[in-house]
Amino acid sequence: MKEFWTSLVSLLGVLASLMNILKVVLPPEAWFAAFSFLIRALNYFSSYCYCDVTKMDGVNTNELYNAVQLYLSSFVSASASRLSLTRAINSSATTFGLSNDVCINDVFDGVAVQWEHVVTQRQSQTFSWQPHPDEKRGFRLRIRKRDKDFILNSYLDYIMDKANNIRHKNQQRLLYTNSLGRTLDSRGQPWDSVPFKHPSTFDTLAMDPERKRDIMEDLSNFTVGQALYGQTGGAWKRRYLLYGLPGTGKSSTIAAMANFLYYDIYVLELTQVRSKSELLNLLMKTSSKSIIVIEDIDRLVNPSKRSKMPQAATPQSYYDPGPSDSMRSLEDGNNNTITFWELLNFPDGLWSCCGSERIFIYTTSHFEKLDPALLESSPMDMQICVS
Ligand SMILES: Nc1ncnc2c1ncn2[C@@H]1O[C@H](COP(=O)(O)OP(=O)(O)OP(=O)(O)O)[C@@H](O)[C@H]1O
């Protein structure tokens, strides 16, 4: 064994001397060509190939570089031997990064890959109006040649998705309301927002543990169900009915759901909605990854009209703004009334084509006022009783 190492060291020494001699003897162009040829020959016989993800793509920032950086930072702290740590001004969170020229292994769908953070000094610059940083940064991905197609097709998309989720979790979440009743402002934004900070989580929520588990499982399945919704042709949305006496934890449950999913919340105040088109506009201005809350839906039901509902036909005109009803009519001059049934079915209608990954939560403190036939004709994905 000792002889093997001695021979190897001698061989490397001879190679190094040979290269030094060639470097002196050969003109730089020939030397560069010989070096390139050697690299190509080595690559040909190697079972690996390499992909560079540089930070700058010409003059633009490479979005893939940012995504890889974010993705690696989510697990780099557990496995890398050398880390680069950063913390932004006024931030309480430390960001982990891969130190220069450090490698980290990852496995995607059983396929092993390796990332290396490559930082090289930039050659002395020719004059440019645009200042360039002194060093070039990038990630080098090492993959087996036989896995190349699979990794390039699926793994990079997976990284982009993961990075988007991390970005989403890091950003300040908002609670939106239309309760100020303003019409579209100059930017066409009908919602007012405040930072959403609610302490309620599924850990703090007093609820039957099994029920809690069911809800969390349902929510988790929803967030990863894009493909399933695509296959069935349905909109990527979910509808829950939350019912229970006042003060029994409906709002706390909604906050716990939003905190669990890192979603924004939109509280739709129906008394401020004047027409169907306004409702449509409000819904279209909600963002993806959000919970849309429609509170006290029992206030939309006029019991006197229940009996008039056609048996098999579509329920109509359930909203009836009687004198005792504090809500305003959702009607414009063109008989544009929003019915209770429509409100339940809005997520399934034409609107669904432009709204994805949204959860609708309807709440009521008077479940008994809701017509079972109506709920049957438009079933909720889950009915949750809080008590
Ligand atoms: N199941 C629960 N778990 C944790 N906290 C609860 C629960 N129920 C009520 N609370 C507490 O009681 C207060 C009122 O609860 P919450 O606002 O969630 O009730 P609500 O059903 O939404 O009431 P309302 O129908 O009047 O809007 C909150 O401060 C909340 O912390």
UniProtKB/TrEMBL annotation:
Domain AAA+ ATPase, residue spans: 236-386
Domain of life according to the entry: Eukaryota
Region of interest called Disordered, as start-end residue ranges on this chain: 305-328
UniProtKB keywords: ATP-binding, Hydrolase, Magnesium, Nucleotide-binding
One matching Pfam family: AAA_assoc
Catalytic activity: ATP + H2O = ADP + phosphate + H(+)
One GO term (biological process): response to stress
Cofactor: Mg(2+)
SUPFAM superfamilies hit by this protein: P-loop containing nucleoside triphosphate hydrolases
Gene3D superfamilies named in the record: P-loop containing nucleotide triphosphate hydrolases
MF-aspect GO terms: ATP binding; hydrolase activity
Similarity comment text for this entry: Belongs to the AAA ATPase family. BCS1 subfamily.
Protein name, as recorded: AAA+ ATPase domain-containing protein
Native source species: Eucalyptus globulus
Lineage: Eukaryota, Viridiplantae, Streptophyta, Embryophyta, Tracheophyta
